[in-house]
Structure prediction request, 241 residues.
Amino acid sequence: MGASRAIAIAGVLTVVAGTALVWFHCSGESAAPSRGAEDATDSTGELDPSPGEADPRSVEGPAGGAAAEPPERRPRRDRRAPATPPGSPGAAAGMAQRAGEQLATGDYNEAAESARRCLETDPDNASCRQVRRRALVEVGDWSTAMPLLEDCLAQAPDEPDCLGGMILARLARNELGMASALAGQLARVDPDSALSHFARANLLDAQGKLEEAQPHFAAACKLGKTAACRRASTRPNLPAR
Prediction:
């Protein structure tokens, strides 16, 4: 009787132990995540992208360098050189250079116009004022040249270029007295320039002193004053002796 009771108790214990093992095994599988699930989750708790899918968190540059912005977010860069603004000093300098070249080649009307545009951009540009003044004197536009000549002489009374131009402007207005006074002043400050000879030749011609004017026309022609060459090659009609 005692042996049968012990066998029955042992059977019960065996069943209880087996049940406990089954329960423990099942609860362990549901609580522990699989290795694949751990691999698919990073430290931030976000799932890794599927194979073949780009990771939006890490877009590397061409050589594996620093991360770059997506193409649609990159700002467009204009690589064209900025144009020189019309009113800038650089624009005026370019106009002054062009006007000077036109004056040197005898394109006086073009030079005067280029210098005018330059002064619209930079009213205080001394080079453009000088080119415009000289070009206007060459073409004989005295009404336009006169204010520039007066302004020049007000600032520099002995400027030979302005004295010569003013002499010609006064002669064009038949103001022989004022032209003669300016010619005397020019002879003192710059007696040997082409413009000085040309201005004095025109004054003597206007006074009827043709024989005295001829050497000055020739001297001005020799020094490069082309307008004087036509007069130097034409002998004056001197009165018979």
User: Anything to note?
Assistant: Residues 30-47, 237-241 have pLDDT under 50 and may be disordered. The first helix runs from residue 2 to 31. The two ends are 187 Å apart (CA to CA).
